[in-house]
Task: structure prediction
Amino acid sequence: MDNFYLNPPRYDSIRKKMAQIKKNNPQIKLFCIGQSILKRRIYALGIGNLKNAVLFTGAIHAQEWLTCSLLLRFFEELSEKHELYGVDLNDIFTNRGLIVVPMCNPDGVEIALGGPKTAKQLCSPIQFIMKKSNQSWQANARGVDLNHNFDAGWKQLKQLECSKGIKSPSPRQYGGICPQSEPETKALVALCNNFDIKKVIAFHSQGEEIYYYYGKNTPAESALMADALAASSGYEVCQPTGLASHGGFKDWFINSKCRPGFTIEIGKGQNPLPIEMLEPIYDRLKEMLVIATLL
Ligand SMILES: [Zn+2]
Result:
């Protein structure tokens, strides 16, 4: 097993891994979709026809970095093989494509794995936020929860946040001063707009759950797709409640594009799920990831 998959994914190591995947297969596209608050680049890998692409995203929440490792593990295998589960990959990628953004929140993941000092000039404000709350860090380097920052029911979510006393930058669940205020959020929105992305699957941890619904713009076929993903993985199809019910990436995608968007909560346990869970989770979800690429 490649050492990369035996350790939590640090920013420098994912840059090297993505460059290696690209080097091993010149048809792969490696590109930057934007920058974080601390000017770390947010990278994407693409395979196939990117004019008709599904998008997989990982690590929008800092503690959920195992999703980054999972997506790179899958993408690397896809880029090396000609066939998976009897599916001819050369054939399917003639007409369709897959874009993977494994680490949407690089500053947050660095804070989660290396502490506030990784945030350089923002070390002191982060330490200040951490002192006010004993919750583990899920946000970006400004204390904004990126999955509360999208323009989908943002005001309703803000009311819910305020009712729970979350009114300023926090380790989690603070949605920012306005929708899409954060560069990481803007980068994902721009990627969907620029590539006219057809479907989104946002990977989170944990819970072994699949979410597909956000209001009246949810396409009719989304429920069937969620059932197919659930049948393959054994995960449960669920409806979001409380603070997870607005402002997320899949919510924005469904609401603004009227196309299928999903959140998949990988694994079970307490975040951060340990790196040792990568292989068992990958074994269980590999077929589902192929299906998700084909849907
Ligand atoms: Zn999450």
